[in-house]
Amino acid sequence: MFGRSGKKGNYAYIVARVKAKKAGLMNDDAYSKMLMMSLPEISRFISESGYQKEITELTGKYSGVDLIEHATYTNMARLYRSILESSEGDLKEMIVSDLERWDIWNLKVILRGRSFGLGADDIREDLVPAGVLDLEHLDKLISMDSDDDILAAYQKQTEVTIPAAVLSKYKEEKNLAVIEDCLDKIYYEKLLLSIDPSSRPKRLFQDFIRNEIDITNLETILKLKKENVPADVILTYVIPGGKLIDKKLATQLANAESVSAMNGDLSQLEFYEDIKDALDDSKPLREIVAALEKYHMAQASTFSHLYPLSVIPVIDFMIHKENEVNNIRIIARGLESGLDREIIKGLLVV
Amino acid sequence: MVDTVGYGLIAIGAGIAVGITGLGAGLAERDVGAAAVGAITEDVSLFGKAMVLMVLPETIVIFGLVVAILAMVMISIPTA
Questions:
Q1: Which of B35, B42, B43 is nearest residue A12 as measured by Cβ atoms?
Q2: Which among A4, A16, A24 has CB closest to B35?
Q3: B78 is a domain residue
Q4: Gap between the Cα atoms of A280 and A294, Å rounded
Q5: Which residues in chain A (280-339) have CB-CB distances under 8 A to chain B?
Q6: Is A266 exposed, middle or buried (0-12, 13-18, 19+ CB in 10 A)?
Q7: Smallest Cβ distance to B35: which of A4, A15, A21?
Q8: Contact of A68 with A332, CB cutoff 8 Å
Q9: Chain B contact for A162, CB < 8 A?
C-alpha cells in the first residue's frame, strides 16, 4: 500500500543508523593528532574512537602496526556486516552487490597467498570478511586443494560465472591478473545490473557507480602509462560501463604520449578541475589518485544529501569508513617505516 | 428530515477529517519512527530529540480533530 511494501527496503532506519555512524568518524584534527603519536599511543587513541572492542580482543595476539591494521579491518568488516544484516528488500540487494567487492578482495588474497605458498593461517590473517561471504565460508575456500576448486566454489557461492575462456587462459598461463581483471569486470557488470533505474535516486546511484568505474579506469590507465605498458594491453584492463570515459576516450588516453599530454582529452570531464594540478609528469601518481579519491568521496556526500532516503548515504558512509581505515593504516605504516610526517600527511585523503 | 441528513453529512465529514489525518500521520510516523529507532540504536542520548520528532506528525491529527470538533459544534448550534 502507498508504494511502501517490504520489498522497497527499510531506508529510513538504515540511513539514520549510517548517518549516526558517519558522525562518529574521525575528522582532520584526529589525523593530525595521530601523526604526532607513537604506535602504542595510536592504538590507545583509536580504541577511544570506536575501535575499543577490536583492540581489546586482538591485543593479546598482535602488537604495534599489526594490531592497528587488524583492529581497523575487523571493525570495518563488522560494521559493514551489521548494516547488511539490518537492511531489507531492494536496499539489501544493492548493498550486497556493492559489498561483493570485498568477496573479490578476499578471493584475490586467497589465490595470491596460495601462489606464494603461504599457509592457511597466514592467508586468514589478511582476509577482510566485510562482504557477503563470512569467515566460515572463506575458511572453506582456503582449505580447498586446488585453485580450480576454489574458483568453482566461489562461483557457486556468489552466483558469479567466470567465462570458461578466462579459466582456461589462467590454467595455461598461471597468471592471476587474468582472473583478477575478469572478477573486477564481472563485479561492476553485476552491480550495474542490480540497480533498477526506475526511480531518480536509483538512477543517481547508477550514475555514481558509472563514475566510480571512470575513476578506476583512469587510475588504471595512469598507472600503466607510468610503467610504459603498450596501449593495446592497457585497453584490455579497462572496465566497460563508465559514464564519461567511453572506449574512444580510453583509447585516446592509452595512446597519449605522456601524462601531461592527457590534459586536452581529460579537460572535458567533470572532475578535471579536481585533478588538473596533479596531471604533470614531474608529479607523483599518488597525487592524482588522492585527488580522484577526494572527488569520489565529495560526490558521494553530495549525492547522499540530494536523496537522503536512498542507498547512496549507505555507500557514502562505507566509502568514508574505508577511507578512515586506510588513513589510520597509512599513518601507522608510515610512522613504523620512519617516513617524514609531512610525507605521511600528503598521503592521507582527508 | 433535511436537518437530519445535514447533521449526518457533517458527522461523516468530521469522521473523515479525523480518519484521513490519522492515516497521514501514520504514514509519516512510519519513516520518522524507523529513523528514530535507527538513530537511538547508534546513540541512546538521541532519545529525547527522536521522541520530539516522532510526535511531530501527530499535529496533523490535531488539525483533523479541531476540524471535526468545529463540525460537530455546528450540529449543536440551533439554526434560527
A1: B35
A2: A16
A3: no
A4: 18
A5: 309
A6: buried
A7: A15
A8: yes
A9: no
Q: What is the pLDDT of residues A201-210, one digit of tens each?
A: 888 889 889 9
Q: Which helix (H) or strand (E) holds B80?
A: none
Range name among A303-312, B27-36, B40-49 with the lowest pLDDT average:
A303-312
Share of chain A above pLDDT 70, in %: 98
Q: Which residues of A touch B29 (CB under 8 A)?
A: none
- Which of A298, A313, A299, A242 lies closest to A91, judged by CA? A313
Give the nearest partner residue to B34 out of A10, A20, A24, using CB atoms: A10
A124 CA to centre of own chain? 19
Q: How many domains does chain A have?
A: 1
Q: What is the dihedral of CA A115, A120, A125, A129, to 10 degrees?
A: 90
User: Does B79 reside within a domain?
Assistant: no
**Cα–Cα distance list, A298 to A115, A215, A221, A292, A320 (Å):** 38, 13, 22, 10, 10
Contact yes or no for B37 and A15 at CB 8 A: no
Residue B30 lies in a domain: yes
Does residue A98 sit within a domain? yes
Asked, for residue B33, whether it belongs to a domain, the answer is yes
Q: Which structural domain, as residue segments, surrounds residue A202?
A: 8-347
A161 three-class SS: coil
Domain that holds residue B31: 6-72
Q: Tell me, what's the ipTM?
A: 0.75
Asked, for residue A2, whether it belongs to a domain, the answer is no
User: Does residue A3 lie in a domain region?
Assistant: no
Which of chain A's residues have a Cβ under 8 Å away from the Cβ of B31?
11-12, 309
Q: How many CB pairs below 8 Å do chains A and B form together?
A: 39
What is the reported pTM?
0.84
A21–B38 C-beta distance less than 8 A: no
| Contacts of A39 by beta carbon, 8 Å cutoff, 6+ apart | A64, A65, A68, A332, A335, A336
CATH number at residue B24: 1.20.20.10
What CA–CA distance (Å, rounded) separates B16 from B61? 11
In this structure, is residue A142 part of a structural domain? Answer: yes
C-alpha to C-alpha distance for B33 and B28, rounded to whole angstroms? 8
Q: Tell me the per-residue pLDDT of A283-324, one tens digit each, with 9 for 90 and over.
A: 788 888 888 888 888 888 888 888 888 888 999 999 999 999
Cell numbers linked to A348? 592521507
The total number of structural domains in chain B stands at 1
